[in-house]
UniProtKB/TrEMBL annotation:
Gene3D superfamilies, per database record: SIR2/SIRT2 'Small Domain, TPP-binding domain
PANTHER family xref list: NAD-DEPENDENT PROTEIN DEACYLASE SIRTUIN-5, MITOCHONDRIAL-RELATED
Positions bound to Zn(2+): C141, C144, C185, C190
Cofactor(s) required, per the database record: Zn(2+)
Keywords of the record: Metal-binding, Mitochondrion, NAD, Transferase, Zinc
Catalytic activity: N(6)-glutaryl-L-lysyl-[protein] + NAD(+) + H2O = 2''-O-glutaryl-ADP-D-ribose + nicotinamide + L-lysyl-[protein]; N(6)-succinyl-L-lysyl-[protein] + NAD(+) + H2O = 2''-O-succinyl-ADP-D-ribose + nicotinamide + L-lysyl-[protein]; N(6)-malonyl-L-lysyl-[protein] + NAD(+) + H2O = 2''-O-malonyl-ADP-D-ribose + nicotinamide + L-lysyl-[protein]
Domain topic, free-text comment: In contrast to class I sirtuins, class III sirtuins have only weak deacetylase activity. Difference in substrate specificity is probably due to a larger hydrophobic pocket with 2 residues (Tyr-63 and Arg-66) that bind to malonylated and succinylated substrates and define the specificity.
GO CC, alphabetical: mitochondrion; nucleus
Chain ranges of the Deacetylase sirtuin-type domain: 1-281
Subcellular location: Mitochondrion
Entry protein name: NAD-dependent protein deacylase
Binding site for NAD(+): 19-38, 106-109, 225-227, 251-253, 269
Length: 281
């Protein structure tokens, strides 16, 4: 802890690379562990453009479940700890040499920016956090391609209540919702089918050029709640290490990213991260 604290105070450019483990204490199910009806379907197989084209009803029910889970969740102590580093006054106390800090998250739940603004707009969220895999409450029109922030609950009447079926139901209980009753674009003259505004497998993550700039100049990388298996995010700690930066890993268990760690904190990150940053003792 003491050695990490010294590195934190001396670092000038810090990034935090975050994954699903950051939001576990907030009650957000991991992407691969939704359970219930979805045990029959590999959740990863639902997160593709092809799956949406084949069965938009099923994919929308899965993402409606995730939207509702995110709306009910609240940021936890690890989110708030990282949020302090985004604010110049508190950062001056915790990491006085740090001129730049950026959260780079693979999570789509919106909890990192919500740690200091309730349901922030995309513009507000972007100021503190790079949500490289998109946002669960964004929607994209498949016709006009407009992206809109929409945190309505439910986003359309036909999806109301289906989150309970997703969580606990059986295959026989899966409703078949007509495409016309799924979320539709509200732009004048459009009415196209909306899709969840997240990055699916096979699609390009957001703001990669900007991320590369932060990674290139980072002298400290905090890896929080990610097993470092999904690229390109899995490579960021190694890149920071390769140009002389330091890496601190905050994970519940050992992971394949541990080899890059100068500091390894095992345990719930909502406990280890605030303690390592000196916010709690």
């Amino acid at each position: 802890m003491a050695a990490f604290g010294a590195a934190l105070r001396a670092s000038k450019n810090i990034i935090a690379v975050c994954g699903a483990g950051l939001s576990a204490a907030s009650g957000i199910p991991t992407f691969r562990g939704a359970g219930g009806l979805w045990r029959k379907y590999d959740a990863i197989s639902l997160a593709t453009p092809e799956a949406f084209a084949e069965n938009p009803s099923r994919v929308w029910q899965f993402y409606h479940y995730r939207r509702e889970s995110a709306l009910k969740a609240e940021p936890n102590a690890a989110h708030y700890a990282l949020g302090l580093l985004t604010q110049s006054d508190s950062r001056a106390l915790l990491a006085p040499a740090c001129a730049n800090f950026k959260i780079i998250t693979q999570n789509v739940d919106g909890l990192s920016p919500r740690a200091h603004t309730k349901l922030p707009s995309p513009e507000q969220a972007a100021a503190s956090t790079i949500e490289m895999h998109g946002r669960i409450h964004d929607v994209i029109c498949t016709s006009c391609e407009k992206t809109t922030f929409d945190a309505s609950s439910p986003i359309c009447p036909a999806l109301a209540g289906t989150e309970a079926i997703v969580a606990t139901g059986h295959e026989e209980a899966e409703p078949q919702i007509e495409e016309a009753d799924l979320p539709r674009c509200k732009e004048p003259g459009c009415d196209g089918l909306l899709r969840p505004g997240v990055v699916w497998f096979g699609e390009r993550p957001h703001r990669l050029a900007e991320i590369d700039e932060y990674v290139e100049r980072a002298d400290l990388c905090l890896v929080v709640g990610t097993s470092s298996t999904v690229y390109p995010a899995a490579s960021y700690a190694e890149e920071v290490k390769s140009h002389g930066g330091r890496v601190a890993v905050f994970n519940l268990d050992r992971s394949q990213g541990d080899g890059d760690a100068d500091f390894l904190f095992l345990g719930p990150c909502e406990e280890t991260l605030p303690r390592a940053l000196g916010i709690v003792t």
